[in-house]
Amino acid sequence: MSGLIGKKVGMTSIFDENGKNIPCTVIEAGPCVVTQVRTKEVDGYEALQVGFDDKKTVNKAAEGHAKKAGSVAKRKVVEFKGFEEDFKLGDAITVEHFKEGEFVDISGTSKGKGFQGVVKRHGFRGSSRTHGQQSMLRAPGSVGAASYPARVFKGMKMGGQMGGDQVKIENLRVLKVVTDKNLLVVKGCVPGHKNSYVIISK
């Protein structure tokens, strides 16, 4: 599961060779710095710890950890396994790690929507708009049974906090790789707001 850390720039659309308009997301992918190399002898598994985006305020622990790699402390640090190439401590991994036409998985934190009702949160239809209906248009309706079991079952779909979850979108096609600006253009949408961090996995 090799990959990169990126930052969502925003959405746009491009035309393919057949003139079809394709919605796509632009991601600033890297350059990421290898801040630690996990080995079986020391850590019990093999992985690369990768950092992205410089921190403004740094504590001593983060500063010392980054100094071993000859870098500054990073805001986002993620571990990846299964890199094909051999990277050493302090090496930079750029957007050239990806190629046009290949498929990637992208995970991030979805936009927080706050407290929402059942119509927006779960896609309920709502009550009928006729037969004297006045104040229960977007209400959930009945949530429980009668005197038996005399309770509401766990997992009942109700209003509550929506968004702010870890979401993974699989098999997004890479449409363009702009190496000079470290940009990755993928087909479709990606979780999160603008400037939010995403993890791009091969």
UniProtKB/TrEMBL annotation:
GO MF: rRNA binding; structural constituent of ribosome
Keywords: Ribonucleoprotein, Ribosomal protein, RNA-binding, rRNA-binding
Annotated Gene3D superfamilies: 3.30.160.810, Translation factors (2.40.30.10)
Pfam families cross-referenced by the UniProt entry: Ribosomal_L3
Keyword rRNA-binding on entry: yes
GO biological process: translation
Gene Ontology cellular component list: ribonucleoprotein complex; ribosome
SUPFAM superfamilies: Translation proteins
Family the entry assigns: Belongs to the universal ribosomal protein uL3 family.
Function of the protein: One of the primary rRNA binding proteins, it binds directly near the 3'-end of the 23S rRNA, where it nucleates assembly of the 50S subunit.
The protein's assembly and partners: Part of the 50S ribosomal subunit. Forms a cluster with proteins L14 and L19.
Protein name: Large ribosomal subunit protein uL3
Originating organism: Salegentibacter echinorum
Lineage summary: Bacteria, Pseudomonadati, Bacteroidota, Flavobacteriia, Flavobacteriales
